[in-house]
Each structure stands twice: as structure tokens, then as C-alpha cells.
Amino acid sequence: MVDASLSRPPVRRAPVETAARVRLRRTLELTGRVLSDPTTVIGLVIIILMLAMALLAPVITTPNVPDPYQMPRDWGAVRMPPLTEGHLLGTTNNGGDVLYGVIWGARTSLYLSLLVVSITVVVGTIIGSIAGFLGGRFDNVLMRIVDVFLSIPELIFALAIAAVLGPSFANIVLALAVTFWVKYARIMRAQIIRVKQNDYVDAARVIGDSKLRIYFKDILPNSITPVMVQATMDMGHVVLVGATLAFIGLSEAGIAEWGVLVSEGQAGISSGRWWASTFPGLMVFLWALAFNLVGDGLRDALDPRTEGR
Amino acid sequence: MTMTADASLARQPATAADDLVVSVRGLEKHFPIKEGALQRVVGQVRAVDGVSFDIRRGETVGLVGESGCGKTTLGRCVAALSDPTGGGIYFGLSAQHRDRLDALLAVPEARRGEAERRALAEIEAAHRIDRLQGNAWRNFRRNCQVVFQDSFASLNPRHLVKDIVGRPLEVYREASGTALTERVVELLEQVGLGRQHLYRYPHQFSGGQRQRISIARALALNPEFIVLDEPTSALDVSVQAQILNLLHDLQQQRNLAYLFITHNLSVVRHMADRIVVMYLGRVAEAGPTEAIFDRPEHPYTGALLAANPDLTDDLDGAMRTLEGSVPDPARPPQGCRFHTRCPVVTPACGWEVDDVVRWLADREAGFDRLSGVERKDAFEADLVFEDDAAVAKLSAALRSDAVPMAMREATEALEVRGRKLHVRFRRVSEVELTPRGPHHEAACVRSGPLPV
After folding, report:
1. Are B192 and A203 in contact (CB < 8 Å)?
2. CA geometry: angle at B206 spanning A192 and B185, to 5°?
3. 3-class DSSP state of A209
4. CA angle (B236 as vertex; B235, B241 as ends), nearest 5
5. Would you state the pLDDT for residue A81?
6. Has residue A74 been placed in a domain?
7. What is the dihedral angle through the alpha carbons of A268, A269, A275, A276, rounded to the nearest 10 degrees?
8. Which helix (H) or strand (E) holds B164?
9. Do B171 and A308 touch (CB under 8 A)?
10. CB of B361 within 8 Å of any CB in chain A?
């Protein structure tokens, strides 16, 4: 060894490093970067409040029996304005408590977005990965299918599916899942095609690692970031589109769902009963806004051009 | 595929010390050019077009050429990262097997008898890397490693150094747990790094240190052979020297063979035992390093040397400039591929219709009146013009000293036929490698030393 010492930094007696400690530090660093943006923090706070509301719904309200997702009906207190005793945000035309709807609606939205986003992320990632990793004929066939899906406007497509299947919450989940996976397939394919050109993938081939291990160790972890950003944004977007479908009557009537509540309350707006639509509408707005803010923050913090450099 | 070149290679008599790590024979890598919605194949980019050479145990072969000459593609084929479209790469041939193989390949495919075909298939099954199976394939994979040019892109940014260097050991289940960590430390120490670097990410290192990590990874499986694809061209000159010395020391300690791919002649002079100069997918010249530097036989080698003033002081004059750019490898020039840029070109170098078209393209006046080229073949065509005056003008120009003397002498026919100008050049076949000295060969129609 001739001049190896030239590039060797002076040996310091540093504390013993372990892989776990280094990885933890990196995670903390990333978290710090995400939290350094105030708008992201605002979004996160809103999301945490929403989640707390959704999780604590059975504690802070008296669940309706037998189905807590159905609006309770108080026929003795119909069309009451906000700040009425027992009905802090007023009641609807049918005597439904708006506050109950807002709180349990958060739970419905959480269900809806988690279900749709997890299904679409998994399906889209698998299909995009097959297309991008295997290429050739698989790529051609899969991407033409994706093109067909993309050629139909998202909302109209979801609307058509939900209309054909009939009005129900489960059908909204299905309609949104069928429409939303395409984006993930596209993003994932593009990422994989980009990442697999990196020399470290060839380096892994040279040492004789298997295709599957190369995919899971080298390709997937380096291509998943934009999918995660998109998924965060879609947590909000799904609720927005879901509420739209519910608003035009494709969900079950009478359930505690923000879109349904806006729909039920909108007839009264012209008569001055603004509360029945406004509060659930505001929730949809805040939910979508919060996830968009966090999604943007994640994108900036995890930008592959700056990350790890 | 042209196999005739192999038969003419000048070779030493076979001895055991002469065992080969890698033998490249008639290697071709053509990339299809696709066009239109149906992706019809409209042509082939001939990135590597019939290359043969050997790498012996413990030897460094320098592969030199301008960017775009196919040297990286060749390196990727040798490391089995790309599949060749023709020819083969043979791993671990003994000298006897190599001679047998060359004798078999010298017979054109159509004339091979049953016994010859069987003998060839036997050698291919045991040594040709795209035919290897099971253990033989794993053996090749372990013994042939690569160090890439871009040290950042070749290390996974999410993996710790320990995981990167330890990964080959993990793949072959050679070590795990603390034993793995100790092996990684050992490897890091061999490349001038140490235990303190185990748990760091690639971005925390300098370019030179990252290249050391790449080298440690390549050494992990104790290979016989490493493809070095411009390992130092992204580094500072001082760091470059350190890495080159490291590579040199490792070679001494481990009897490694290197295929050193570079465009930098001073680096190969320092590193290589033998040099292969590539131009447009073919070997222009190959030979021992001193012979190449002292007595270059191919004008392209001469031009490369002259472009490096510190390497030589007696090779300027005619050799000083290398003008123009590398021609399109989808349509390589006829004859000698270097004739379009050669400073000492002769009438026998493969003048062709494309040379006229290229010449016309260089002067605006006249070319826009050219309405078509009716080719009979690469050497004979009718150039169709829109008016008679242009035909007469070009005809006169091609007879004058506006075009190179060698081109005029290679013209066999030049006739005005109405609005067409009929041209025919001397038909020349591709220039093959011919012996120029001990183990030294060049593909040039000239013989004798280059004019100074």
C-alpha cells in the first residue's frame, strides 16, 4: 500500500458506531428537515387533530345505536341553529346533529382514504414495477391499459362506476380505487426506469445478486419517494372526490359522511340555514388542505436531487 | 461476422504461464435504431463491430479510444452486463484451448464439419460466458468484477459502507454477523480506509474515497479479473495518482488482471502492459505499451499521441491535428473507418460516395441543388441535381485540388449524364489487422513508420 495514508483522515476515538444508531440519526435528520417548513407543520397539526377526532369519536360523542355511522335523528329538534343546547353546531332538516356528523364524518373519511390509498398504492406499485422492471412486452401492454384509464376524466370515470354499481359507501371505495391506481403505476414505472439505469444496479448484478433482491434492495427503496408523496396528497384528494360523489347522491343516505351532509344541507342555504352544509364542507376543505400541505413538504424534504447528498 | 482477423493475430507459443482470463473473439454489439409507431428497425448502431483480444492472468490491457468508440459497451459485454449480438467472450481458457478455439473459429461457419462443430460447442459450453450455467456461471460472476466511472452512481445512496462492501460476501454466504464485519474492515484497510468508515453513507465521502469503496467491493470475492471503466477520469489529478497506485499494488498482491478502459493515454502508459486502440467499434491497433508509444503504426494512434504533447515530442507535424468528429456508427465509413479524418490518407483507404456527400455538405452552395443520390452501392452512385450548371461545377470541383488528392486518385469514373453525375470509386474491403512487430498489429493500409 503506497500512499493510502494520504486520504485517510486522522483516526479519532469516536464513540462506537452501530448501523442502528446511524440509521436512527438519519431518520431524525429527515424528520427535522420535514418539520423545518412551517406550512408542513400546520398541515401536520390539522391532520393530528382530525385523526384524534376520528379515533376519539366514541368517547366525545354518544355513539348512535345500532350503527354509529348512521346520523342520530332528534325529531324534536329539527333545523336548530348552532349554539343550541345539546346541538353545538345546530341540526339538519331531519334533526341530525351536525357536530356528530362532523366528528363521525372524520372517521368515515379516514376509512375511505386509508382504504382507497392503500389499495391503489399497492396495485399501482406492483403494476408499475412490473412494467418498468421487466420492460418490453409487459411494459407495452400494461401502459396501454393505463393510457385507456387516463383518457377518461377521473371524476367522470369514478362517477360512472359508482352510478353503475349503485349508491353505497363500499361502491365509492371501489370506484375511487379503480380510478386512482393508474397514477401510481405511471409514477412507479417512470421511477424504476430511471433508477435501474444507475450503476449501483449494475454493480449488484456484477456481484451476482438475484433480480428480486436487486429490486427490493436497490430499486424499490430508491424509487418509492414520489409514490409516498403522491399517496399523502391523495389522502386528501380521495376525500374530496368521495365527498363529490356522495354530494350527488352516490353514497348511502343518512350516513355520517361530510359529502352526504353537505348534500342534505344545501337545500336550506337559500333559506338562511347555512350551518348544515358549511361545517362538513369546511372539514372537507381542511382535510384536503392539510394533506396537500404535508405532501408538498415531504416532496421538498425528500427531493431525490437533494436527499442523501 | 469477420473471423479472419483472429487467424492473423501474432501470438506467442502457448505455455502454461500464458493462461488467459478473458478472450474476446469477433465481438459485436449492435443496437437497433427503431422508428415510428410500430418501432420498425431502420438501422443498426454498430457500437462494437468485430473486436478480438486476450487478457492474460495478472496482466493489464488498456482499452483506449475517443468517447463513442464503443469501449464502454465492450467493457459491459465483457462483464456480462450486456449481451453481445455477435461473437463471444470466453472465460478461463488455457493457452491450448485458446489455440484450438482460434483454429475452429478460423473455419467459416458454413464449412465446419460435424466434429469441428461438436468441439466448438464443447469449448463454448465450458467457457463462453453467455453459455455458462450453474456453478460455471457463478464462478465467472465471482471472478469478474467491475469498477465504474461514476463513484457516486455506483454506490447505493441508501446503503451503509458495511452493507455495500459486505454485500458480495452475503450473496455468496461467505460470512455473516461479526465475521462479515471483520472481513469488511479487512477489505477497507486494503484500500486505505478503515473501521471508522463502516457505518457511513456514500455521500459522506470524497470522490477518491468512494472509488476506494467501489474497489473494496470489487475485491470482496477475490476475483481474477476486474473491468476498470474509466475509474479515475472523474477524479482530481492528485487523487487519480493515489487510486492508480492502489490499483497497481493490489494487482501485484493478488495477481489480478485488469481491463483498463480510458481515454487518457498517460494513464494507460502508467498502468497497461498491452494496449488496444479502438476506433468506431473496431480495433485500430493493438500491441505492447512501449511499442504503441514508441512506434505507433496506425495514424489514429499517432493522432491520439500527438494530442497529448507531454507524451511525445517527435510525433508532431502531419500527426498534429485530429479534426472533425467521429462519424455516425450506424453508417461507418468504408475501407478504413478512420479515412474521413486521417492526416496521411491514401487512395486505397476506402473513398466512397458518402465522402462526396459529406464534402458537399460542408459547402452550402451546390448542396441545396442536389436533389437525390441514386446509390448502386457504397462506392458507385448517381448524384442528381436540379440544374446542369451544378453538375458541371461539381464535376470540375471533384477533378480539382478542392478535394483531397487521395480522393481524386481513388475516383475510377466521373461522368456527367444530363443532370446526373455518375461517380465510381475504387472498391475496397474493410481493413483487417496485420502484424507489425512482436504481438503488435494494426489495421492500416500503409506499412512502415508514420511520417514525422
Report:
1. no
2. 90
3. coil
4. 90
5. 82
6. no
7. 40
8. helix B161-171
9. no
10. no
pLDDT digits (tens, 9 = 90+) for A274-287: 888 999 999 999 99
Indicate the number of domains in chain A.
1
Cα angle, residue B303 at apex, residues B301 and B308 outer, rounded to 5°: 100
The enclosing domain of A212 has a CATH number of 1.10.3720.10
Model confidence at B317, pLDDT cuts 50, 70, 90, reads low
Beta bridge partners of A70: A255
For residue A264, tell me if it sits in a domain: yes
Give the global pTM. 0.84
Question: Do the domain assignments include residue A121?
Answer: yes
Instruction: Using the predicted structure, report yes or no on whether residue B43 has a pLDDT greater than 90.
Output: no
Which chain B residues contact residue A307 at CB under 8 A? Answer: 157
Phi/psi at A128 (5° precision): -60, -35
Distance CA B202, CA B208 (A): 11
What are B56's three cell numbers? 492474460
In-domain check, residue A215: yes
Q: How far apart are the first and last CA of chain B?
A: 36
Average of per-residue pLDDT across B18-27: 89
Cell 372524520 belongs to residue: A106
3-class secondary structure, B323: coil
pLDDT of residue B19: 83
- What ipTM, to 2 d.p.? 0.84
Q: What domain range is A125 assigned to?
A: 44-63+80-306
- Nearest chain B residue to A208 by CA distance is B141
